[in-house]
Design goal:
The protein is an alpha/beta fold and about 425 residues long. The chain is built from 16 helices and twelve strands. The strands form three sheets. Strands 3-2-1-4-5-7-6 form a seven-stranded mixed beta sheet. Strands 9-10-11 form a three-stranded antiparallel beta sheet. A two-stranded antiparallel sheet has the order 8-12.
Length: about 425
């Protein structure tokens, strides 16, 4: 890890934010938001308001963000980079942060056992010599009911990146200013047909020098396809709980085009896919879409959380349902025309997904009240009361609601909880 350590000392990553508190107040946030996605992380409803949180490979800004955003949590960040830790310490002093401690330390040098409620390791494991042993080591730091949030490179979007990395190795490019500028010139000249363009167009990383170095001149990184990821997790002895955002991992409206025009055809495909196991369904989605640069997911120690909510039959009368954050209605419905409206969510800085609801779906969707209790039975009650008061000749039942909300869960529009 000496080369990796040296890289991040010379090129702290991501680029340090010196006014992070102000940016947070203006709406800046990390995608893996601990509070907004509580039930994704702990579907059982564990209260982790004052949790002990380990940020492994915290870089320049991540631990600071969590400490400023969750002042009641106790945050501990470790990183190989002396420069990244120095920036953290500078910001701790500037903002008088009391709930954050940082140290320059390798994951394998940490001695604490069974201490943390939440462990975050995003953008780290694929830079280690042995990703499996790294995950096993991380799990030792967590309590029996801890959640381990992992972000690890996916090979699908990064195929073109690795072809360019190979070119730069052949050219003997190093992490110098001169070679960095040569890389930038090279990137400006690659053909439009090169597979790296999709990554380049979707990545904010390449707006900074440290990001270009991290992407194209890294001394050590590896990406995984679906099967390799499955093997990695199973060999670690941990349990895969769920993806952080399902939309990339199921055969959904985001994965496909022109569903409305080819509904009968797609229904036949869905039927076959539904008969496959969890990983095969994910493999189909990943090989169809090819837009995924990072697998973000949650691991647990308890077998009871394996593939949480993947099977529709695990939804029962007590299941809690919430709108996923950052969803808006972009078109109001007209129930007389079997139009329940159109909803939209931002899934990345460059991508959105829209979902067209029919009238019945629109009524169910509108019956989720995020300020009240939202078991599926509460939602059914509100939906049926709406139909009764508006003289709509339809009565929702549990099976219909389960099918609809499971579909919306796969598309990343709702969150389930126990």
């Amino acid at each position: 890890m000496k080369e990796v350590k040296s890289q991040y000392n010379d090129w702290p990553y991501p680029e340090p934010i010196h006014d992070l508190k102000e940016k947070i107040s203006e709406g800046f946030f990390y995608d893996l938001h601990l509070n907004r996605f509580k039930k994704i992380i702990f579907p059982e409803g564990k209260d982790y308001t004052s949790a002990d949180v380990l940020i492994a490979g915290c870089g320049t800004n991540q631990a600071l963000y969590y400490a400023l955003s969750y002042p009641e949590m106790n945050i501990f960040g470790i990183d190989l980079s002396k420069e990244s830790i120095a920036h953290n310490q500078k910001m701790i002093k500037k903002y008088k942060i009391k709930n954050l401690k940082v140290e320059q330390k390798d994951i394998f040098d940490l001695k604490e056992k069974n201490k943390y409620d939440v462990i975050v390791a995003t953008g780290v494991i694929h830079h280690t010599k042995n990703p499996k042993n790294t995950i096993i080591k991380l799990s030792e730091f967590g309590k029996d009911d801890c959640a381990i949030i992992i972000g690890i490179y996916s090979s699908y979007l990064r195929y073109g990146v690795y072809s360019l990395q190979n070119i730069f190795r052949l050219l003997n490019y190093n992490q110098t200013i001169e070679d960095l500028n040569l890389v930038k010139k090279f990137l400006n000249g690659i053909p439009d047909t090169h597979p790296s363009h999709r990554y380049i167009n979707a990545s904010d990383d390449l707006l900074t020098d440290a990001g270009v170095i991290d992407t194209f001149l890294h001394t050590q990184d590896v990406a995984f396809n679906t099967v390799e990821l499955k093997d990695l997790i199973e060999e670690s002895g941990l349990v895969f709980q769920s993806w952080f955002d399902n939309v990339y991992h199921y055969y959904t409206q985001y994965t496909l085009k022109n569903i409305k025009e080819n509904q009968e055809y797609y229904d036949k495909i869905y039927k076959r896919i539904e008969g496959l196991d969890f990983w095969k369904q994910a493999e189909i989605a990943h090989n169809t879409n090819f837009s995924l640069g990072m697998f973000n997911f949650i691991l647990r120690k308890d077998k009871n959380f394996e593939f949480m909510w993947h099977n529709m039959n695990t939804i029962n009368q007590k299941t809690i349902i919430e709108h996923r954050p950052f969803i808006r209605v972009v078109e109001k419905g007209n129930l007389s025309l079997n139009n329940g409206g159109v909803i939209e969510r931002q899934i990345s800085s460059t991508s959105k997904i829209k979902f067209n609801l029919n009238s019945k779906e629109g009524i169910l969707w509108s019956s989720i009240n995020d300020s009240e209790s939202n078991t599926i039975m509460d939602i059914l009650k509100r939906a049926n009361e709406f139909c009764l008061s508006n003289k709509i000749d339809f009565e929702f039942n549990l099976e219909y609601a389960k099918e609809f909300f499971h579909k919306m869960w796969k598309n990343g529009f709702v969150i389930f909880g126990l």
